[in-house]
Amino acid sequence: RRAINLAVQWDLLEKNPLKNFELFMVDNQIENYLNDEQMARLLAVLREDRNRNVAMILSLLLSTGARLNEVLSATWKNVSIEGRSLKVDAIRSKSKRSRSIPLNDSAMWVIEQLKSKDSSAYLFPSPVLAKQGKDLPYTNITRAWYRIQKKAGIKIRVHDLRHGFASMLVSGGRSLYEVQQILGHSDPKVTMRYAHLSPQAMQEAVNIVGNVVGRRPVGNQVAVAATV
């Protein structure tokens, strides 16, 4: 559909011949989550790994749920220590709108450890490019990430750290609206994928109504409805 729409846009076709075809509804979302033991192993590796820059990048991803490119391209001018936030410029945002990432204590700790503030515009300048006299950020951490995964005995994608952050929020009782705002999802349907992660929170939510509806008037008395 995307290819044909582009063909119409570029005047290669007069109209989209597939306009009225319905798309297959395929649930092809891949989400991997670390259990408590795996998370503990990963954190232990990040605390001691020799590549401190990549370890700090991954730690910031775990602490904020930010996208990898948002952290790699983060600049010091967009960090507010007082406001405990990291601004993502529209040009670097997936939604093409600027947003602000709230920073918790662990994220603030990571930023406080960085030594690039007085020497670079970026939080994580590339040491390879710095040797060439260029002040540019990291563009890829794939090799270091593979090594760290192997060392921690896990196998996930970097993007799964974002899923893990969201799952911890939902499992901790935070609303899907809050998760949507923190992660910067423009479409709430994207956030809904995490709804199944917090059955306890959902149960507590419906119990609010159950506590009211569960009592109904019968004559001059109040009878308690049977629990189903």
Please summarize what this structure is.
With 228 residues, the protein is mainly alpha-helical. It has eleven helices and five strands. Strand 4 and strand 5 (221-224) form a beta hairpin.
Could you please describe the fold and organization of this structure?
The radius of gyration is 23 Å and the shape is globular. The protein has helices at residues 2-9, 36-48, 52-64, 68-72, 105-113, 127-130, 142-152, 160-171, 176-183, 188-191, 199-213, and strands at 79-80, 85-88, 99-102, 215-218, 221-224. By secondary structure, the protein is mainly alpha-helical. The strands form two sheets. A three-stranded antiparallel beta sheet has the order 1-2-3, with no helix packed on it. It has a two-stranded antiparallel sheet with strand order 4-5. 45% of the residues lie in helices and 8% in strands. Residues 222-228 have low confidence and may be disordered.
Strand ordering within the main sheet: 1-2-3
Overall average residue pLDDT: 86
The arrangement of helices and strands along the chain is HHHHEEEHHHHHHHEE
Number of helices: 11
Which descriptor suits the 3D outline? globular
> How far do the termini sit from each other?
47 Å
Sheet/helix structural class? mainly alpha
Major β-sheet annotation = 3 strands, antiparallel
* Integer-rounded radius of gyration: 23 Å
| Helicity range | 40-55%
Low-confidence stretches: 222-228
Quaternary status of these chains? single chain
Q: Per DSSP, what share of the residues sits in E-state strands of 2 or more residues?
A: 5-15%
Care to count the β-strands? Answer: 5
